Amino acid sequence: MSKDAPIDETHCATYFKALAEPLRLQIVRALQAGPLSVSDLSILLEQEVGTVSHHLRILFHADLVSTEREGKFIYYSLRSDIHKKRGKSKTGSLDFGCCKLEIGPSSK
Q1: Rounded CA gap, 56 and 40, in Å?
Q2: DSSP, res 97
Q3: CA distance 39 to 100
Q4: Amino acid 12: pLDDT
Q5: Once rounded to an integer, what is the mean pLDDT over residues 89-105?
Q6: What is residue 5's predicted lDDT score, i.e. its pLDDT?
Q7: How many degrees, rounded to 5, is the angle at CA 103 between CA 102 and CA 105?
Q8: Residue 100 in 3-state DSSP?
């Protein structure tokens, strides 16, 4: 996102709507550490693969995560132009252009 681009409240609202579900926020927290597959997230968050997949699809369509295929696996990661890491920590912030959201470490 360009700092000079006008703020698009509709786009920002889409981000917040996607993050308004507790499991999706847990997924975002987990992805701060780096790319993970659906099965990795399923094990980490102790959720069914189908449930995690559903929530990842919502985050993907909200343009918060990107995908990369490695063989038969798809790895999800936070979009690098939005996610700003703090040094070597596993925390950071999401910069939507209209505002920033600080995200602490996962409680799991």
Answers
A1: 12
A2: S
A3: 29
A4: 81
A5: 74
A6: 55
A7: 145
A8: strand
- Residue keyed to tokens 């990107």: 66
HEC string of 17-53? HHHCCHHHHHHHHHHCCCCEEHHHHHHHHCCCHHHHH
Which tokens in the block code for residue 33?
Answer: 């550490």
* Rounded distance between C-alpha atoms, residue 27 and residue 44, angstroms: 9
Tokens 């499991």 sit at which residue? 23
Radius of gyration of the chain (CA): 14
Q: Which residues of 67-102 are buried (b: 16+ CB within 10 A; e: fewer)?
A: eeeeeeeebbbbeeebbeeeeeeeebbbebbeeeee
Confidence of residue 4 (pLDDT cuts 50, 70, 90): low
C-beta separation of 97 from 17 below 8 A? no
- How big is the chain, counted in residues? 108
Closest C-alpha among 80, 82, 66, 62 to residue 16:
62
